[in-house]
Amino acid sequence: MTSHLLSVDSLSRDWVDHLLRVAGRMEPIASRRKVTRVLEGAVLGNLFFEASTRTRVSFNAAFCRLGGSVCDTTGFTFSSMAKGESLYDTSRVMSGYCDALVMRHPDQGSVAEFAEAVNVPVINGGDGPGEHPSQALLDLYTIDKEFTRLGKHLAGAHLLLTGDLKYGRTVHSLIKLLSLYEPLRITLVSPPGLEMPRHLIDLVASRGHRIEERESLDSDFSDLDVVYTTRIQKERFTEELSESFAGVSHDFRVDKAFLDRHCSATTVVMHPLPRDSRPGANDLDVDLNGDPRLAIFRQTDNGIPVRMAIFATLLQVEDLIERDLRDVGWFVPRTFGVDDRTL
Ligand code: NCD
What we know:
Strand content: 15-25%
Largest sheet: 5 strands, parallel
Order of helices and strands: HEEHEHEHEHEHEHEEHHEHE
Number of strands: 11
Number of helices: 10
Helix content: 25-40%
Bound molecules: N-carbamoyl-L-aspartate
Strand order of the largest sheet: 8-7-6-9-10
Distance between the termini: 43 Å
Structural class: alpha/beta
Radius of gyration: 20 Å
Low-confidence stretches: none
Shape: globular
């Protein structure tokens, strides 16, 4: 039986906990202290039919760090889909070439349709406004790692999810994933018309979590443990929504003033990235750069061990990882970014 990673719907808490433990064991390799060749000879097909930088490159880098090789294709223009090929045909062809497939596509449900034709693992790298399960897993891994460092616990934590909660697929997957855990308090704030889909709110509430919607960031928020901001997904707006959105002035920016007003020294600030850094954008402000609470680059770094764990688990080599570890032989800087803090 093949296991794909298409939606958080099919994940159990036991599987997620196992995956996060495997991700922890990937840290020495992901942080470039050790080398493994556990996927030597394996080939990944990385198919991205929608814009991406970090997801595409991090899936690619994760597979390479396990010793595998990657073939990729980006955009419709240079693919056979531009000649009218069906998802079914493309996926069957690719499964003859590759041992695992990652796909991002603008249509919700398309990656699941793609996976129907094949027996090699398929990972959903984002299907339109649908889901982005690997991002949710790396977000949960980040929350767990940050909380452990700060001496906090997930049980009873208060999370604020803000921005485009309607079209932001990362928050759709994340809220489902979080709902598998101990009762949480989740506050949702989004511009009008961009609210979290009702079925997801109902699902989370039915699992015993306290979930509340607010209209503005200018409210009284107490004890925020996590602030998770998302970009306004204008590329998915209908014409009608674009017009109504342009006509209203919003302030959904998460900046230093917001943090100083509502958060503590131990609040964790996250974003799936990319953030819209243009002046006036309703997004996570650059004035938080350098603030130790800003976890966004630790979050992107965590994409590597988590995606390595996904590949190792789906390809069933997670028990072999430590068997052939070697020391890294090349120069590795102490921190990867010039502004990175050692916490
Ligand atoms: C997000 C996506 O593509 O859903 N980015 C990502 O994969 N980290 C968020 C976005 O595009 O705003």
